[in-house]
Write a structure and sequence with these properties.
about 450 residues; Diaminopimelate Epimerase, Chain A, domain 1; six-stranded mixed beta sheet; 19 helices; 13 strands
Amino acid sequence: MAPLQRELERAAEVIKKHDYARVVSHYDADGITAAGIICNALIRRGIQFHATIISKLDRYSVQEMNEELIIIADMGTAQMNLILKFLKEKDVVILDHHTHAASSLKSSSSTILINPNRLSSKSEERLGGELCAAGLSYLVARLLGSDDERGNVDLAGLAIAGTLGDKLPLDRGINRLILDEAIKEGVVTPRKGLKLGDGKVRDLILLSTDPYIPLAGKTEQVDRFLNKVGIEGEKRLEELGEEDVKRLSSALLSIARESNTELREEALIGTSYLLNLEVEKNVLDFMRMVDACGRFGKAGMGIGLCLREEKLVEEAKSLYMMFQNKLVSELNRIEVAKEGGMKELPNVYYLYVQEKGITGVLAGIIAEYINTSKPVIVLNRKNGANEHGDTKISARCSKKLLREKGIDLSKALEQAASEVGGYGGGHPVASGASIPEGMEERFIAAVDRIIGEQIRTS
């Protein structure tokens, strides 16, 4: 961890020199919790700030940054050339974990790029490569804390929520150190059971998309199912006894097997966490509420949740329910659609979505639970119908495909997008792209070709 620690310490010292900061981050759960951690730490040091949550970092957004200190979270590695060109006179701290082809990019005298994947690229030992932006932000916040060893440790729950939002493991590496510290200090409490969040059993099953339960959105089937297993649907999940939980989980896994849904037992049952200091205690519910805020253009509300504004909880819950309903609606549409549904090429599945703001989450659900044998590419013309005329794309695949077939979606999307005048990148199993409208079919063909080449040469 030594190279990473040196960069973190350097970043903290740069931040301490300023009395005002611009904070820029991504609009998903990891990005918003990362921004929330940084904003909390800045407030406690008496540093004023302006926080901006965006869907992508491009030339337009970089050029309009004119503050003396700019902190960028959950993005920036792929845009280092833009940052070095337009912000070379500014102090810039980048807290990112996305991979990029230009892995040799170096920090400059005024720009500090902290990316565990980049720092560990030449080492046989991974130096925290599974850290997300929220985890990196927490490590910086700890260094910004008081001289007390516990300074800003109370923000660990936000780091854990961001890590779960990016579906990264908590049981190893630096993530495990953060979790252990949080448990020791009473910031979080482990809890075993079903990983469905808190609420009424019937409602949780109806809206369960991750883990994906094939009963989602099917009211009559859910009622018949609960009646058959003898579980009262209006009862809250946390009120069920141990035998009821065992009976319910066994029945849900059976339903998944019958419908050929790849619902693993560990995805449904296991350890979750209570955030003892946050406005929403269940970590899954908190993470999903923050994520929904970002995807509905209410990122300020998401940051407010991270700043522990209790008055925002009910509206954030409503946004989360709306988001889940959109997801369930789209999943059910795909299930019955003939035209406009899932399409298959030799090396990928792909589809166009009709709901705005769900592209990446939908791709992840399908790739993990439904169509798992190939990467899944989801295109959203509505989501990308912005002032630049772009189409937004998300791609997901399982870690099994990464291990067994050598698939790297980050490289595939970056290359395919550049071939059609767009840009892309991210992680080997979860990447995104933005391409000019009208280039979708050429892009899909390019991705299919590149992934085929990856498989043949692995």
